[in-house]
Amino acid sequence: MRSSKLMRYAMMIAVFSVTCFAAGNKPNYRLLKTHKLGGGDGKTEYWDYITLDESTRRLFLSHGTEVKVVEADTGKVVGNIDGLNRAHGVALVKELGRGFISNGGANEVVIFDINTLQVLGHVATGGNPDCIIYDPASRRIFTMNGNSKDASAIDPAKGTVVGTVAMGGRPEYAVADGKGAIFDNIEDTGEVAKLDSRTLSVQARWPAAPAANITAIAMDTKHRRLFLGGRNKVLAIMDADNGKMIQTFPIGDGVDATIYDAKTGLVFSSMRDGTLYIFHEDTPNKFSLVQTVKTEYGARNMALDPKTHQLYLDTADFGPAPAPTMQQPHPQPTPVPGTFRLLVYGP
Q1: Which pTM does this prediction carry?
Q2: Is 46-307 CATH 2.60.120.10?
Q3: So where are the chain's domains?
């Protein structure tokens, strides 16, 4: 009887924690920890997507020539997957015990053992595979290839490409709905493309305006809402079934990650300029800005821990921007090699 009462009490606490934002209580995200990671080739600093393995509590951080594997709870580096060329992202297929890295500079996917971190193989893809995701509906890995403007579909068990899909523009970050649809930002055309993961065909294209140069996407799969981060400083919320624009918000400069937390209804969007925007889904058709957090310059990539609701961002120190050139009229500050670090934010 006592255990039953405790269970009911725990459920009440969980429900309260999920609904408290809707009741008017704002979140209070702040910096909790900083972990110095270092590493890299000592010549350049580059980082991109962060992936959390919830079961092992490990983070996989792409870091130029390596993927750095870090304990999420302690910040301890437990391994590196080396020999990469501008690594972008990591997708995990737990039932196979395999991980997949989009190794952009080598136009390939690198397959590794999740437990030992040993490289198992290489799969040639289109040009500069950037975003990489696992689609559970088709049981396929997908890479979004920026230079060849297509997507590669890979059988993760066989380690072979089973198809290539022309995306009609430069594909950026993608998200799967778990039912066989993959939604991808087409950065240079200002569209969202809906890809059927089983037939390998593009089923729809919707304009993302007023968002433009969209580089980040997340999804509320229950209410069928897409969250699009545009480099023109606009966050847009779109209906995933018809492409209708629901609402937009102004955001900062250099968005590169957007995440939806299904348990709290919070939407997170991180910027290169060192700002984290937090929105709340009041209803599926109404969203509100509930907090703006000052992070660090360059902390544009992000992962969410659904268990603790903490956020992981990474960045480095920066030196002054180089002199403008005709090829690069607006250069950005230059990251300092060896200063790579992990930032942990939480409520």
Answers
A1: 0.92
A2: no
A3: 46-307
